[in-house]
Amino acid sequence: MFFEFGIKDFIDILLVAFLLYYTYKLMKASGSINVFTGILVFILIWLVVSQVLEMKLLGSIFDKLVSVGVLALIILFQDEIRRFLLTLGSHQHASALVRFFTGNKKESMEHDEIMPVVMACISMGKQKVGALIVIEHNMPLDDVVRTGEIINANINQRLIENIFFKNSPLHDGAMVISKKRIKAAGCILPVSHNLDIPKELGLRHRAAMGISQVSDAHAIIVSEETGAISVAYKGQFYLRLNAEELESLLTKDI
Question: What predicted TM-score, i.e. pTM, was given to this entire model?
């Protein structure tokens, strides 16, 4: 028996395919791809048992497992679900819509405010001083700021270099720049468990990737081993940047 296939059915299939693909990318980034594959296999078996073979007893057992499993999945993947909602809310058009209704203007750093950060990173890179700097944008990082020491100072190249000096008590944590000021230092960032991160990248890079996956912030890393400057932004690394590339990346439109 043939059934009608309209434009709504095509859009429905397209949206489901997009949702599955995005979920796959999210699980792969978090190292949970095997769990995702297991869930798909379970759903396939459930559909075959209940819809194709029409096994009532086994089908009812699977139905109960599915009804309870939804709650279990929400608990199990709460970080991934939170990341999905944060990514959705931080999208350029969504952020513009929020600013339209709330009347808040978009916070963007100018060239004069970015250059002290760029020059400090270049200087620290030459001296192979490790650093991790997070620049907040539309999504507030109050939870991260609370894990460190409040500074609330103007953005200054010498201050940045002094904070990350090897003998400084705050050099191991992350610095957070918010509302065009150095808000805090020594902050603790969520560490990414993405298995695709190259082995040669250390804990600073994983922490930078972690904050970039749950916010729209730029995370700048200065490697203590090589002096190379990298940026993590929206779950992607930009490695071995020079001054011009770093400035361009930090001033790009969010």
Answer: 0.66
